[in-house]
């Protein structure tokens, strides 16, 4: 019996007429070396059937508690058929990058059917060069960024030859409790809810100054500091920066429409910059995004005079929870120094801000998103979340955007015999987190970016992607000027062949 956690349920309640809460990705495949020279829907369905036991989330559907009195449960779908979740389409000529992005954006707009297991895959043929794309999405209540990548990894092989997998082990099927048991559990949790709220408030109070929205409340810093002293957590914590997000075109109510753009930069260049300035790869990613956002805002005469605030998801999934359905994640808030004109100063400021955020995160409970989600009863959360998110977006945004970096393997992988040449991740837009989401995935020597935007907020998503690639070139030049003994110049960042050059 598996019940959704408060955080998992929050991702369900986030959905509205304008918000689809699934994580997704686009794998670009080169079938030239595969045994059949292509990837067919039939081959993908057969592969999924063979490996379904390696991906438990794909065969489960939601079982709702009557009247929405409690969080839903996971249960096996007795009528489940893999083939019903796998679709196939072909792009019209010429099958370029822009057409693929438009097709994927339309697929990403559509919410998943909650009456079935919450996932879909779409094989997209007709790309230039004989390539094939696979767009796959899974609801965020079932997977986070890391487990979503692991879901795809279960289907991939190290060589074009499709590997044999061990048959499924004997296990009891996952089933939801009966109606009476559900209602009894809901009543028991309702009775003890005030006690749990007080406990959660006590645990969250020490980090009130770094929690979205709460950090901007009057007295938040004083309450957090006093609580840390009380519980002996006051030593050596860096002072948090201002986490008041400025108003930007990214923020405000979103629509149901989406735009998608994507591209890659060489991971070797990212690592070169990290080494030259003694910062992490993730710090370089944040610097690239800060520079790109600054350029876009300047072009639109909308650059604030203070840093943007980004929410950065952090995986906290343990080895023992690898096969657990649901989310094991937390988040850091970090300023993005888009107000700094000098690229070197901007890079160093990003490094300092991220080091401070990581130090605070290491000393703080990682489960505050779940704690916050659990403070409001399930019945209220389901009805109130979309309304609260919409009102918050019209008032003061808690963050300007979400930036996420998911590490991946540095060797080629194959799907149904076709080599995966790139993987562009995609995530969620909400009223409260803004109309831009930037996610990247490191794979086989590249850092692959997927940008999802709401056209009401950012119409020219390709232009924003172009700014990221321009920022990479700029940082490589800075690394060259900085100089690192014994290192040689690496190739500059480049756009994938056929990708539209931003206007």
UniProtKB/TrEMBL annotation:
Q: What's a BP term from Gene Ontology annotated to this protein?
A: triglyceride biosynthetic process
- Asked if the keyword Mitochondrion belongs to this entry, the reply reads no
Locate the region Disordered.
483-503
Pfam families registered for this protein in UniProt: WS_DGAT_C (PF06974), WS_DGAT_cat (PF03007)
Q: Which domain of life is it from?
A: Bacteria
Q: What class of enzyme is it?
A: transferase
Q: Which InterPro entries match?
A: Acyl_transf_WS/DGAT, CAT-like_dom_sf, O-acyltransferase_WSD1-like, O-acyltransferase_WSD1_C, O-acyltransferase_WSD1_N
Q: Pathway it acts in?
A: Lipid metabolism; Glycerolipid metabolism; triacylglycerol biosynthesis
What's the Enzyme Commission number for this chain? 2.3.1.20
Q: Which reaction does it catalyse?
A: an acyl-CoA + a 1,2-diacyl-sn-glycerol = a triacyl-sn-glycerol + CoA
Keywords carried by this UniProt record: Acyltransferase, Glycerol metabolism, Lipid biosynthesis, Lipid metabolism, Transferase
> What protein family is recorded?
Belongs to the long-chain O-acyltransferase family.
* The name this protein goes by in its record: Diacylglycerol O-acyltransferase
Q: Write down the species.
A: Planobispora takensis
Instruction: Kindly list the organism's lineage.
Output: Bacteria, Bacillati, Actinomycetota, Actinomycetes, Streptosporangiales
